[in-house]
Specification:
InterPro entries: DAGAT. The chain is of the alpha/beta class. It is built from 8 helices and 12 strands. It has 2 domains: 1-62, no CATH class; 64-193, no CATH class.
Length: 213
């Protein structure tokens, strides 16, 4: 998914060429790989950089779950890390709309080891990657014949509040998660009818996220 988005940056007629892609500051500093990541156009997703682009009105693409969501990846179900809420705060502060993207079958590109989540998330706190995965081709190439489908949802709108309270951020983050859950199940039968359900990780627990009836 990331490479597809990055390649689109070089098609100047594409709207994606106007998007700022944000990623982990640690990834940008890695030997060799960090150079390639910076060359591809990724910038740091730290709060200072994030806000500097929002102050200029730039469109931003990022993964809210970050390292933690990668550590929770499972080919058996879809896991969403729920404890990053800063993007809701900034969207409210700078008057941004949020367009969630749901990737179906991306979690099947590699086999995952669905154990030691707490330890792996602890590693993330020290900026170490906690993913455990392999494929038919060991760690290099993904499994073949995986059709990854991407749904880009309609914008989710939040009220513009210059200094939102913690309660307001919690309220709108909850509504955002409900919206993403609705989108996930709306298209699940079309793109991954036999796949697992959507789960959210919060307070050291994975709980199934269910759409409102």
């Amino acid at each position: 998914m990331a490479m597809a988005l990055l390649l689109n940056m070089y098609r100047k007629e594409e709207p994606l060429s106007q998007v700022v892609f944000c990623g982990s500051r640690v990834a940008l500093q890695m030997p060799l790989a960090g150079y390639l990541i910076r060359w591809s156009g990724l910038v740091s997703a730290d709060p200072q950089s994030f806000q500097s682009y929002m102050q200029k009105g730039k469109n931003i693409c990022f993964i809210p779950g970050g390292y933690e969501e990668a550590s929770l990846t499972s080919q058996n179900q879809y896991n969403y890390y729920l404890e990053h809420k800063g993007f809701i705060k900034y969207a409210m502060k700078y008057g941004y709309k949020i367009r969630p993207c749901v990737a179906y079958n991306e979690n099947k590109a590699y086999q995952t080891i669905d154990k030691f989540y707490k330890f792996r998330l602890l590693l993330n706190k020290f900026k170490f990657v906690g993913t455990l995965f392999y494929s038919k081709y060991f760690l290099i190439l993904s499994n073949p014949n995986i059709n990854i489908e991407m749904v880009v949802a309609k914008p989710f709108e939040v009220p513009q509040i210059e200094n939102p309270t913690k309660e307001q951020i919690e309220e709108w983050h909850k509504k955002y998660i409900e919206y993403v859950t609705q989108i996930f199940y709306k298209y699940k039968n079309q793109f991954d009818s036999k796949g697992g359900d959507l789960y959210g990780y919060q307070n050291e627990q994975l709980k199934q996220l269910k759409p409102k009836l």
